[in-house]
């Protein structure tokens, strides 16, 4: 039996800035979504320990079809933000295997996949760019050094480039 941990995250905010035409030619981007920047920040809990991580990244999409609606619940339209989770042990980053109640590996790996909500572009423009902030609970970790690799998928199932947070060293 596979254990799915889909909702171990919080989507804190999505800011989408649509490219609005002006006197100049409108900006266009490729139809495939592209992650254009990648940063993170660590948040401390009330106990003073690192307890959450916010992935913050920019994106573009030439045909403005990023996001899922409330009725998009069947694969492949149930998840559009894919996040692989790694912990560093003995100098090597590895995916974390999920264990059952008896501490036996299930074959699944821990991830923080989620959903980017649907949005409407402004002014009928086709190309969009924006920023997404995504909050991940990291209180229950097995290492003090983590890494997240992630990509997004649009409604036409075009995958973005995969990016990495790089090492995240926690206290």
SSE blueprint and pairings:
Blueprint: E1 9-18, E2 34-44, E3 50-61, E4 81-89, E5 92-95, E6 97-99, E7 105-109, E8 128-137, E9 145-152, E10 163-164, E11 168-169
Antiparallel strand pairs: 1-8, 2-3, 3-8, 4-5, 4-9, 6-7, 9-10, 9-11
How would you describe this protein?
Helix content is 0%, strand content 44%. With 171 residues, it is mainly β. Strands 4, 5, 9, 10 and 11 form a 5-stranded antiparallel sheet that branches. Strand 4 and strand 5 (92-95) form a beta hairpin. The radius of gyration is 18 Å and the shape is globular. Residues 1-23 have low confidence and may be disordered.
Q: Roughly how many Å apart are the termini?
A: 34 Å
Unreliable stretches (pLDDT < 50, length at least 5) are 1-23
Q: Globular, elongated, flat, extended or rod-shaped: what is the shape?
A: globular
Q: Nearest-angstrom radius of gyration?
A: 18 Å
Question: What is the tally of helical segments?
Answer: 0
Strand content: 35-45%
Number of strands: 11
- The overall pLDDT average reads 83
User: Main beta sheet: strand number and arrangement?
Assistant: 5 strands, antiparallel
Q: Which class best fits the helix and strand makeup?
A: mainly beta
Order of helices and strands: EEEEEEEEEEE
What is the helical fraction, as a range of percent?
under 10%
Concise account of the structure shown:
The protein is mainly β and 171 residues long. It has strands at residues 9-18, 34-44, 50-61, 81-89, 92-95, 97-99, 105-109, 128-137, 145-152, 163-164, 168-169.
Keywords:
globular, mainly beta, disordered N terminus, 5-stranded antiparallel beta sheet, single chain
């Amino acid at each position: 039996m596979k254990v799915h941990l889909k909702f171990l995250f919080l989507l804190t905010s999505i800011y989408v800035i649509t490219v609005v035409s002006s006197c100049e030619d409108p900006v266009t981007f490729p139809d495939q979504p592209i992650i254009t920047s990648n940063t993170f920040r660590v948040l401390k809990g009330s106990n003073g320990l690192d307890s959450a991580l916010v992935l913050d990244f920019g994106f573009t999409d030439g045909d403005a079809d990023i996001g899922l609606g409330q009725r998009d619940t069947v694969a492949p339209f149930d998840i559009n933000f894919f996040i692989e989770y790694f912990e560093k042990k003995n100098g090597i980053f590895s995916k974390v295997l999920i264990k059952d109640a008896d501490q036996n590996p299930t074959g699944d790996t821990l991830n923080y996949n989620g959903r980017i909500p649907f949005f409407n572009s402004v002014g009928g423009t086709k190309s969009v760019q924006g920023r997404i902030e995504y909050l991940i609970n990291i209180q229950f970790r097995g290492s003090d050094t983590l890494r997240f690799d992630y990509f997004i998928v649009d409604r036409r199932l075009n995958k973005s480039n995969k990016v990495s947070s790089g090492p995240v060293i926690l206290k």
